[in-house]
Amino acid sequence: MLSIKYRTIFFAILFSVSSCAAFAEIIIQPTPDQGLQPRLTVDNNGDVHLLYFKKRINRPASREGNLYYRSYDHKTGQFTLPVKVSSSAFSMQTFSIARASMAITEDGRVHAFWYYPRSSEMIYSRSNPERTVFETQRSMVSIFQEGIDAGGDIASIGSNVALVWGAGKLTEEHQRTMFARFSNDYGKTFGEEVIVSNPDLGACACCSLATDYKESSDLIIGYRSAIDGIGRHMQVLTLENTNKEITGAYYQEMNELQEWEASFCPLSTNDIERSGEQRWLVFETHNRIIKMELTSQNQASAVGPPFTETRQKNPALAINQAGEQLVVWGEAISHSRGGRLNMKLFQKDGSNAEYGFTENITITDYSFPAAAALVTNDFLVLY
């Protein structure tokens, strides 16, 4: 049996549907602390970590605030007290692609990477191994800074940390590229800024990216190109041996569900999640959410229809130890409106889990959903 539990500020609902697996729950709740733009990640021990933006209490009408970190207590079902991440307040961007990102290294440190719009910088900070305090933030881009207009992404494995972002003239998207810096000492030091993508493909200026390590030092990057300014296809780039000097790079063969010719700004996010040796990518194409396995034969499929005929955006993916996949996203979204929460659960074999998510849950304005698998094989969803 599979049971679905919804938790909001106002009510909690629990209902069951048929499944051959043991009991599992999908716990849905607002981001703690009236937080916005939540990011959830799971470390190798199964612990869940949360990064979010919170407005200043004394200036609730403005968008100025700070990033905060919390961990999730599986026993109590509650988050720990917040730890401030950013050293100075900044104005949150209303669009989702400017989101912050987070990764955990094997020594327990939390690493955060975010966009600082006031000076168009990419900022990095890391915690101590006990995750009780964060270091003074550092500006990480000085050479390839022109045209930074959205958040990058961060990934880690072992002691390695990778920072990836897009830059270049905003008026010449077809010439923009992806850049990166790498650390092999838990973020203490980073190598030089390097160009990592094919300049002939361009890079969408109004799109996010997602990255994760494939193996010990190979890095996967999912980003949108800007071929001739309209070919906003979801490119999958692999960098080999990033912990020393990159020895090779290649693009995976394009699946038709990755292709999207659009003259407008998609302003939509994408997400990569691990499942054993597999890496799964979720993203938007032609207003629909797509999920794709990256390490075998590029298995790709549309996740499911919307509640009504509207655009699906800003997906997040969680995979539990049983191999079940939960994809969450928003619908009927505008530049600032969070829209309506929707989700789809898939069994290990890829088939749909037969349950009906019909709750009308509104995502907070300027925000988007996040998802994580718990050690119990249940799922946690924040909005």
Protein model, in words:
- A hairpin with a 5-residue loop joins β10 and β11.
- The chain contains no helices and 30 strands.
- The protein starts with a strand and ends with a strand.
- Mean pLDDT is 90; it is low at 1-21.
- The strands form seven sheets. Strands 4, 5, 6, 7, 8 and 9 form a six-stranded antiparallel β-sheet that branches. Strands 2-1-3-30-29 form a five-stranded mixed β-sheet, with no helix packed on it. Strands 10-11-12-13 form a four-stranded antiparallel β-sheet, with no helix packed on it.
- The protein has one domain (2-382): Neuraminidase, CATH 2.120.10.
- Helices cover 0% and strands 42% of the residues.
- With 383 residues, it is an all-beta fold.
- It has strands spanning 2-7, 12-17, 26-29, 36-42, 48-55, 64-73, 78-79, 83-84, 90-91, 101-104, 110-116, 121-126, 138-139, 153-157, 160-167, 177-183, 194-195, 209-213, 219-224, 234-240, 248-251, 271-275, 278-285, 288-293, 300-302, 312-319, 325-331, 340-346, 370-373, 379-382.
